[in-house]
Write a structure and sequence with these properties.
alpha+beta, six-stranded mixed β-sheet, 11 helices, 18 strands, homodimer, 356 residues, seven-stranded antiparallel β-sheet
Chain lengths: 356, 356
Amino acid sequence: MRHIDEQDLDDLAVGAAILGTGGGGDPYIGKLLAQQAIREYGPVTIVDVDEVDDDALAIPVAMMGAPTVMVEKLVSGDEILSAVDAVAAHLGRPMTHTIPAEVGGVNSVFPFVVAARRGLPVIDADLMGRAFPELQMVIPTMYGISATPMAMADEKGNAVLMTTIDNHWTERFARSVVIDMGASAMITLFAMTGRQVKEATVVGTLGLSQELGRIVRETRAAHGDPVDAVRERLGGFRLFTGKIVDVERRTEGGFAKLEARMEGLGPDVGRTFTVRSQNEHLVAEGDGVAASTPDLIMVFDTDSGEPITTESLRYGFRVTVVGAPCDPRWRSAAGLELAGPRYFGYDIDYVPVEER
Amino acid sequence: MRHIDEQDLDDLAVGAAILGTGGGGDPYIGKLLAQQAIREYGPVTIVDVDEVDDDALAIPVAMMGAPTVMVEKLVSGDEILSAVDAVAAHLGRPMTHTIPAEVGGVNSVFPFVVAARRGLPVIDADLMGRAFPELQMVIPTMYGISATPMAMADEKGNAVLMTTIDNHWTERFARSVVIDMGASAMITLFAMTGRQVKEATVVGTLGLSQELGRIVRETRAAHGDPVDAVRERLGGFRLFTGKIVDVERRTEGGFAKLEARMEGLGPDVGRTFTVRSQNEHLVAEGDGVAASTPDLIMVFDTDSGEPITTESLRYGFRVTVVGAPCDPRWRSAAGLELAGPRYFGYDIDYVPVEER
C-alpha cells in the first residue's frame, strides 16, 4: 500500500502509454485528469493484489472509443461516478476498490479520478497487461467472468446500463452506443470480487508502468538510450529504427485504424517497415512479420524514448519499434481466439516475438 | 372497466392494425400472443383513463424494430417482464397499470401479455393515436415527459436500461441497440403517472380499435363495404382504389422502408398512385400529394376490408387507400416538428387531409 504523488503520476502515465502499445489515450491527458482529481479530493492509495480481501468489490473504469476523439472530450468525472453507482446498485453491494481495465495513457490513470473522489484505493493490476481495442479482450473473459452489469456514460448526461448473455454481446451493444455518444464514453464493467481479481488480472502493472516511466526519465537525464533501457526491462526486441514516411488513418466503427509506413535509418538503412493498428498496434512487418498481437508492439520517439500513441503518429517522426512478450495467458488457445491476429482479420499464425 | 375475451381480441387486433397505418406489426401475431397469455395467466381488464388514480404508475410496453423481423421472433414474455421490473426499480415504485405505446397490430395487444402475467389492468389509451416509426414521436414528448428510464430486452436474454437527456437521444441509442439485437426488441419507456396519462395520451384508442374491428367483421357479414364503413367512422376520405403493380422494399437502419405503386380500378381507372412508408405509411401521392404524415394513411384489402401492414403489401393486391385526420396535437408546430413530412425528408408542407 502506497500513496501516489505528482512525479509518480508523470512516470505512471508515460509507462502506461508504453505498455498501452499505441492505445489507451494520450498520457498527458490522463495525467492531467488524475492530478486534478487528487488536488481537489485528496491523495490516492495503491494497494497490491494480496492486500485485497477475497470478498472485496473491485469495479474497473475506463474510457472507451477512438482515442482521437477521447482527447477532445474531457470530463468532470460526475458521469463516471453515476456509472459506478449504477453497477454497484445492480449488484446490491458497495464498491470497495477500483482497478484499471487496461494499461494505457488515459486508462491506467482514469481510475485515480474515481478513487480520489470516493476515497477508495486503486488495485495495482489490470485486466490485460496491455491495451486492446474490444471490451471482451481481457483475461477475465478467459475465466468466464461477465463484463456486465456494464454502465456507460457520456459527457452530456446520457447513461446506459446493460446485462448481456456473453462478453461479445457487451462489446457489440457498447460499440454501437459509444459511436452514438460521439465515439467516446466513460465505461465501467467487469466488476469482480477480490478473489477474482487475484486470479484473473495481470498483477503489478501500475508499478511496472511507474518503473518504465522512471527508466525513460532517468536514462534520458543520464544521456543514455531510453528505448533500449525499456526494451531490456521488458525482455523485448528492437524490431526497427527509422522515419515515418506515410500514415494512413481513418476512424471506423468507433475505432481509430491506422497504417504507418517507415523507412530505415542507422542499422536499418535501406529497409522498410509497416505498423498496422486498431487503437493499438497489432502487426509489425518488415521482411515478413516481425511481431503480432497479442505480443506488445511499441513505437517510441527514438531520441526522447517517449511512447507515441496511435493518434499522435505523424509523417517525419523518427521512431524505434520494439516488440515484447505478452502475458502468457494471451498465448493460450483461448487467448489467441480472443485477440490473436486472425481475430483482427490478419491471415497469419501467431508466433511468439522471441521466436521470430 | 371491462374484461376482454377472445372475440374482443380479434376485433381489437384488426382495428389496431387499421389505426396502425401499416406499422405496429401483424394483427394475427399480436392476437396469438395475447390469447396465449390470457389462457395461461387469466383474463385482462381494460380501464378507462378516468378510472386511473393520479399517482398510478403506468408503464407502456411495445415491440420495437422492423415489423418484417418482429413476426419471426416470437417471445415468451419473460424478457419484457424483466424490462418492466428494471424500469419500476429505477423509479423506486411498483407498476400499477400498463398501456399501449402506440396503436398497431402487435403493439396494441402486446401490453395484454404483461397485464395477464402480472394481473394488472391495461389503460384504454395510447401515446400516439396511431403508430409512428421513432420512439420520440409520441404526444408525451410534446408535454416534456421523458422516454427514460427505458429498458430493452431481446429474446436471447440481453437487457439494456438507459436514461437520456432527451427523447431524441433515447431513439438514437435504442435504434442502434435494436439493430444489434437483430432488428427487433421488446421495450418499455415513457413510464407515466396517472395524472400524466390523462393529459398526454390519446384516450379511448383500445375501445376505438375494438369498434373498428367489429365494424369490419359485421359489415363483411352483411355483405356491405367494410372499408367505407371504417372510413365513415373515422371521418376519413377514400384516396384511391386500385391494384398494386410494384413494391420496392428494404430494411434500412432498423426500419422497413417501402414504396408501393398502384394502378387505378373502378372509379380510379387510368390513374396511378404511390404510398411511401417507413414502418408506417407516411405519404400518399396521386396527382399531387393526397395525404401525408401525421394524418393517418390506411391501406385496406378492398374486398375483405382487412388492413394491410407494410410487411404484407404485395404485387397484385387490390387495395383501397383511405386518409383520416390525426389527433389534433399532431397538427401543432411541436407535433409537425416531431412527425411532419419534413422530419422524414419529404419536401412538402403539411396540409390536413380534409383540406386536400
